[in-house]
Amino acid sequence: MTPSTIIAIVIALVVLWLIFAFNGLVRKKNRVQEAWSDIEVQLKRRYDLIPNLVETVKGYATHERTVLEDVTNARTTAMSAVDPKAKLQANDQLSNTLKSLFAVAENYPNLKANENFAKLQDELTDTEDKIQAARRFYNANVRDFNTSIQVFPTNLIAGAFHFTKQELFDVDNPTEREPVKVQF
Amino acid sequence: MKTLYTEASSNVRKTWALMTGVFVLIIALGWIFSQIYDSPGILVFAVALSIVLNVTSYWYSDKIVLATTGAKQIQKSDNPELWRIVENLSIASGLPMPKLFIVPTGAPNAFATGRDKEHASVAVTAGLLQIMNKDELEGVLAHELSHVGNKDMLVSTVVVVLVGTISLLADFFLRMSFWGGGRRNDREGNGNLMFFLGIVGAILAPIAATLIQLAISRKRESLADASGALLTRYPEGLASALEKIEQNPYPTAGASSATAHLYFTNPFKADAGDKKKTPFFVKLFMTHPPIEERIKKLKSMSL
């Protein structure tokens, strides 16, 4: 084998590696984006359920205007948020207002007996769980992507083609761990 | 520090190492036989037959398994709580929602089957639903969904094809030598040595291959434990489910040795009874790692 053949082989290998590594990064980045849209699907499902809930509660708990307003406002803020981080924070806030609403609902036996309310409560609790699950999947993908752009030698490609670290959105955020304060 | 991630990747590495081992065995055996009989056709035929047989059973794996266990498919309305657990775990692992089945038997167990994630089925026994709380159920189902996500049906099919090829080869050889040695080339000395090697190989290789198959099965179980725990972020759920199962004395009805590797724990309870460490020789023949070992691993996991 002449030295020129060896050089040609080495160059070919490097180019092949470049192609595979670059495509791998693109694939992982797309997976992160797809996982994000999975979160948004669940968020949208929750936005759609809330007006119904507010209407139902209004019919029974006429004195709870502030709690209802909190929920409606939190929903509007969450829906208008653009930046992912702000969107999730607004949604955590929305979760908290919903918790207060359900806690208040405990005081209205007629409301609790309402079938529609029970169904909505059930659906919303489920959606909450699904949002958490979608966030976990998103985090797993982000972690995977972030690791690949940091390890050598893929980090060279990541740097050259401007792949940047994606943000993790931890599921267990401190505001959710605190018990909800309910005032009667 | 050992994290879940390193646990998962070391399992994947070991699985590949074991599969390579089986493949080397096949080539060695095929080479010896074709040396003896001067016909490379034996190896080709054995590989082809084994592939056809096993790919067929892989393709219809869900139907075959579900029919033999008597599992009944359920809809969301039949058991909304179970449905939701699976639905949420599917979202968290990025898998499509599998078909859900309940096996009407009292022994607590669960399994996953199907050729890929689009055709996956997850089944739990009625006994499992009866004795497990939500966290434990979640742990068990996360383990099963991890089998789907880790493509364990594909892995075990590949392994079964490889092991089956070895058994077929060995079988051919023993039969042919029984019928008078066939077209053995009679170059003295070398021919006899090869023939002796052939006999030894034909007897030992299938045993070795089966042991490797079982070792892979145990690796995939540990892997599913680890990735399941990663999914729920709560290894204690699965650990406590395993503890409950260990205390349950009944073997799973409807399980046969052909489907044993599918289950969440060994359906024959070979590893239950005494709390002592399972002897190495017994462990070699188990489809699942010993329960006490799995519990210990789950409890020591740092997330």
Write the SSE topology.
The complex is a heterodimer of chains A (184) and B (303).
Chain A: H1 3-60, H2 65-80, H3 84-105, H4 109-113, H5 115-150, H6 154-160, H7 174-177
Chain B: H1 4-37, H2 41-59, H3 61-69, E1 72-73, H4 80-93, E2 99-103, E3 110-113, E4 121-125, H5 126-131, H6 134-149, H7 152-178, H8 190-232, H9 235-247, H10 280-284, H11 291-299
Parallel strand pairs in B: 2-4
Antiparallel strand pairs in B: 1-2, 3-4
Helix content of chain B: 55-70%
Biggest sheet features of chain B: 4 strands, mixed
Would you give the CATH topology of chain A?
de novo design (two linked rop proteins)
Major sheet summary line of chain A: none
CATH architecture of chain A: Up-down Bundle
Helix and strand composition category of chain A: mainly alpha
Point out poorly predicted stretches of chain A. Answer: 173-180
Provide tags for this entry.
heterodimer, A: 184 residues, mainly alpha, de novo design (two linked rop proteins), 80% helix, B: 303 residues, 4 strands, 5% strand
